[in-house]
Amino acid sequence: MIPPDLSEPIRTLQTKLSVLLRVFNSNQAIDTDKLDSLCCKETYESILIDFPWASITPSLHRLLAHSPELIRDCNNGFGLKDFSEEAVEACNKLIRKYCEQLARKMSFTSIANIISLSTTYYLL
Question: Where are the domains of the chain?
């Protein structure tokens, strides 16, 4: 059960996060200054104030703290619809293979080096 004093902050947080996710996943032009100041910082602060016992996960931190600069600097002010996690998810099969067959046991550095070499383009 949700305590009565938290029902409104939870509903507000759900609405804000829903709007932010739709904005980030759009391919429309976005005013990143307004997005950062009004939405991201406000949402981040409301989580810290309304839920002081909650910890902010790294993925939520990246969403609220770094998405506006990613939109502004890397995508020319447009939403991140064209960016997805498909490339990262596609690498999971390769990472598993490298862990099982090619890497020194318990060496994440070895795996990172193999992945770096396999994804680097060389100019001939």
Answer: 4-74, 86-119
